[in-house]
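User: tokens in, sequence out, please.
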């Protein structure tokens, strides 16, 4: 297996993992899981689902690189850019659709898949680059991203991206209307 094949498998692995991570907080409601997994059905909380799925899958991906002796560089930097760009790409595609159609499950899945597809293409090229020696930047970036997730879970702004229409609330049971 080469880098390209692993990245193709990764698209599907991350996509499937999103279904599992979507419900983890419901199964294990605690502070730690509230930072890593969605606590409600708002658009923003689903960004945690996607990010955590990418990060969890990356552990398996790393072992695949080792097992098949696939040359790669910039793994952590690639991972950081993958999670950041997945959020950006998803929101750029999803928000206009959401404004016109509302939340339609099949469209949500298509946008999720497209987002994962594009970030894995970008990741492929970053992994194939020469070593950029920016792994520390990636580690710090991922930590900061989860700090932001934690802050916005417990102190969400009053914006439709953070609003759970199903339960009529913001955040994690703090801002019920």
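Assistant: Sequence out:
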């Amino acid at each position: 297996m080469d880098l390209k094949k692993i990245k193709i498998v990764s698209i599907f692995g991350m996509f499937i993992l999103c279904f599992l991570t979507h419900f983890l907080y419901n199964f294990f409601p605690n502070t730690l899981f509230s930072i890593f997994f969605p606590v409600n059905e708002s658009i923003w909380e689903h960004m945690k689902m996607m990010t955590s799925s990418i990060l969890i899958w990356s552990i398996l991906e790393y072992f695949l690189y080792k097992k098949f002796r696939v040359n790669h560089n910039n793994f952590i930097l690639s991972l950081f850019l993958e999670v950041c760009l997945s959020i950006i790409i998803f929101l750029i595609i999803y928000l206009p659709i959401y404004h016109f159609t509302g939340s339609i499950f099949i469209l949500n899945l298509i946008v999720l898949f497209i987002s994962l597809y594009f970030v894995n293409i970008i990741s492929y090229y970053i992994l194939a680059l020469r070593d950029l020696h920016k792994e520390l930047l990636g580690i710090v970036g991922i930590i900061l991203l989860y700090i932001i997730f934690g802050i916005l879970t417990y102190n969400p702004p009053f914006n439709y991206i953070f609003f759970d229409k199903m339960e009529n609330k913001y955040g994690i049971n703090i801002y019920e209307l």
